[in-house]
């Protein structure tokens, strides 16, 4: 079960490097406080870099270009006053995008051959000793730009954030054309040169400002989405970071709290088993999910009354058609043939979760009532201690759970033992129920969980990603998820449209 939650939860941590924290520790100190880890290797960064052009395009197109006003005295010629307004960008294209992971520094991004046409209206006046003239005309500015961003990750003001202020543009071309006049006279050439210099400063400032804004909006969006994936109703999971991300030449790694809050009570992680050596660099993406996150989440779900199952009608009758080696006791047959039989099952104890190399195990006491529509009291009530070891797989956009159950103990209500059961009957009923729980009950619960958890992950958009050979690997105290992936372009485009429009 933990592997199932972990798979969807892990993907949503992708690039979630911005998060509120009480304090930012060095990574080594933060390990013991960490409930979840995301490692993005160089190949994954290559996939994401392919989408960088969409972010850059959005930054150019969404940037608010202010009106440009100025006055310039021209020696021996006169005075020029100008105002450019209604600036819009057209015909935007980007030639290439390259990046570099710089160890202990940040991420360098080079965007080359950005071609764009800025259009707007120019109002100008020129005054000299000989004459005065003024005009309002449309203009175009043809540009060819290279963009370099040296982003750094820092800790301040209660959060870790990306600083993209080290951003600069190189203009290989910036030509102002007045009403498509490609061979202007000497006067137009004169003030065109003046305006072009001012235009460079404005474009640089607005583009770099917008890139920083879009980057932080995207990071906040992913962080919020990841929290919402595991948070529901009164259950909340804090995946804020415990440390600034670690950057090497081969990967970027972020460390997350994974603290579960339910009705004002918050879990504590102070002895996490995480160690960077538990992750490799062979796959594109790795997610480390500790039992310190998953066990409190299971407890919160129990306290919130999530583990209750009622089965009746044809579904119930069909369950007991399963062939078992133990003969069906008369008491059970009589109950099944009664009017409106119903089975009610729930967890009678707080489930305990832990992970080993064999899988993720959940242990709890399950309570079961066999009810009939015409009876006030149950035909039978019993409790059984169940331990299930589950392994999770994800294929064809669906979650698959494989579980092995151990049913350790069957306990009946004392009054039922006196009223209904002789010792011999109790023994045969115990054997039957133990086999029924193991071969009917546990598979039925798993059959409920698979589509429900798949639907939950689909609602968060997991099915829209191209997950390549995902593996959910259980280890002592944690689950490791590793995969390659393809990032669907339309998701990023839609996000940018909804966020920036």
From TrEMBL:
InterPro entries reported for this sequence: Bactericidal_perm-incr_a/b_dom, Cholesteryl_ester_transfer, Lipid-bd_serum_glycop_C, Lipid-bd_serum_glycop_N
Q: Which SMART domains match?
A: BPI1, BPI2
**What range does the record give for the signal peptide?**
1-23
Q: Which organism is it from?
A: Astyanax mexicanus
Where does it live in the cell? Secreted
The family this protein is said to belong to = Belongs to the BPI/LBP/Plunc superfamily. BPI/LBP family.
Q: What is this protein called?
A: Cholesteryl ester transfer protein
- Mind telling me which GO cellular component terms the entry cites? high-density lipoprotein particle
Q: What is its main location?
A: secreted
């Amino acid at each position: 079960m933990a592997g199932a939650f972990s798979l969807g939860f892990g993907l949503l941590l992708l690039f979630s490097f911005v998060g509120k924290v009480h304090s930012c520790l060095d990574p080594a100190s933060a390990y013991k406080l960490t409930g979840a880890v995301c490692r993005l290797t160089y190949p994954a960064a290559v996939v994401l870099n392919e989408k960088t052009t969409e972010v850059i395009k959005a930054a150019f197109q969404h940037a608010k270009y202010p009106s440009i006003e100025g006055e310039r005295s021209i020696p021996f010629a006169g005075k020029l006053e100008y105002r450019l307004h209604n600036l819009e960008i057209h015909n935007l294209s980007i030639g290439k995008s390259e990046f570099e992971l710089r160890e202990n520094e940040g991420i360098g991004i080079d965007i080359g051959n950005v071609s764009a046409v800025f259009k707007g209206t120019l109002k100008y006046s020129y005054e000299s000793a000989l004459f005065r003239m003024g005009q309002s005309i449309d203009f175009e500015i043809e540009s060819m730009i290279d963009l370099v961003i040296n982003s750094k990750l820092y800790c301040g003001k209660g959060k870790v954030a990306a600083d993209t202020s080290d951003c600069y543009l190189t203009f290989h071309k910036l030509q102002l054309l007045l009403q498509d006049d490609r061979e202007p006279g000497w006067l137009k050439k004169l003030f065109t040169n003046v305006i072009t210099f001012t235009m460079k400063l404005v474009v640089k400032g607005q583009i770099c400002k917008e890139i920083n804004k879009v980057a932080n909006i995207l990071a906040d969006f992913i962080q919020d989405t990841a929290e919402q994936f595991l948070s529901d109703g009164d259950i909340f999971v804090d995946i804020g970071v415990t440390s600034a991300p670690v950057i090497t030449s081969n990967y970027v790694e972020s460390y997350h709290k994974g603290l579960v809050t339910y009705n004002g009570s918050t879990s504590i992680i102070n002895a996490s088993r995480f160690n960077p050596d538990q992750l490799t660099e062979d796959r594109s993406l790795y997610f480390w999910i500790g039992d310190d996150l998953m066990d409190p989440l299971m407890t919160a779900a129990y306290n919130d009354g999530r583990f209750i199952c009622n089965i009746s009608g044809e579904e119930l009758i069909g369950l007991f058609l399963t062939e078992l080696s133990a003969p069906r006791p008369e008491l059970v047959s009589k109950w099944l043939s009664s009017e409106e039989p119903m089975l009610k099952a729930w967890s009678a104890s707080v489930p305990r979760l832990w992970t080993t190399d064999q899988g993720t195990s959940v242990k709890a006491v399950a309570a079961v009532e066999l009810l009939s529509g015409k009876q006030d009291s149950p035909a039978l009530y019993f409790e059984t201690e169940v331990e299930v070891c589950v392994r999770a797989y994800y294929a064809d956009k669906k979650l698959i759970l494989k579980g092995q159950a151990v049913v350790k103990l069957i306990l009946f209500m004392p009054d039922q033992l006196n009223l209904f059961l002789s010792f011999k009957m109790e023994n045969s009923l115990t054997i039957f129920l133990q086999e029924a729980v193991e071969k009917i009950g546990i598979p039925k619960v798993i059959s409920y969980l698979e589509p429900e958890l798949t639907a939950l992950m689909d609602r968060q958009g997991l099915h829209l990603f191209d997950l390549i050979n995902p593996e959910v690997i259980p280890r002592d105290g944690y689950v490791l998820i590793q995969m390659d992936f393809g990032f669907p372009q339309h998701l990023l485009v839609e996000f940018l449209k909804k966020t920036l429009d």
